[in-house]
Amino acid sequence: MENTNIDATHNRPDGDRRIDSPVLVIDLPTFIEQIKNEKAWEENDRNSITVFKSDKMRILLVALHRKAEMQTLRPENILSLQLLKGKLNLKANNESTEIHKEQILALHEKISYSIKALKKSLFLLTLVE
Predict the structure, then answer these.
(1) pLDDT tens-digit readout, 31-44
(2) First to last CA, the chain
(3) What confidence tens digit (pLDDT) does each residue in 62-113 have?
(4) Is the dihedral of CA 93, 75, 18, 122 positive or negative?
(5) Which of 5, 9, 51, 114 is the most buried (most CB within 10 A)?
């Protein structure tokens, strides 16, 4: 396996970081501070950063302001959502589920869903192929 890095971008000029290696330690407090201090968090209803990415799995750290919504109508992947802070509402299969701090939600592939932040929220979103 080869180490994979993400190069700096316009939004993250200091963004050169490793996102895949045989062993990768993800420093969540550092990433949380980073996305909450970026212009995207100030100007939009959300911000996120990819903290791990391989051919089969991706982990994103996502921050949503209260009332922010995100949805996927044609999901391909199995996913898990681990709520670190806040409160979310997930709608899928004609059901509505509240997700509270320190809970994990798992969802099979090909299930359309929407997520709404009931409070300012922070979560890990893991997508598996």
Answers:
(1) 999 999 999 999 99
(2) 18
(3) 999 999 999 988 889 999 999 999 999 999 989 999 999 999 999 999 999 9
(4) negative
(5) 51
Bridge-based pairing of strands 46-53 and 95-100 is: unpaired
Alpha carbon distance 107, 111 (integer Å): 7
Phi then psi dihedrals of residue 41, to 5 deg: -70, -35
Calpha distance 74→110 (Å, rounded)? 6
Q: Three-state DSSP class for 41?
A: helix
- pLDDT at 129 (0 to 100): 85
Q: Hey, what amino acid is at 116? A: K
| pLDDT at site 5 | 54
Two tokens at 104? 């994990």
Q: Two tokens at 32?
A: 């949380």
Taking alpha carbons only, the member of 76, 74, 78, 104 closest to residue 90 is 104
What letter represents residue 85's amino acid?
A: K
C-alpha distances in Å from residue 13, one per residue of 21, 52, 69, 79 = 22, 19, 27, 29
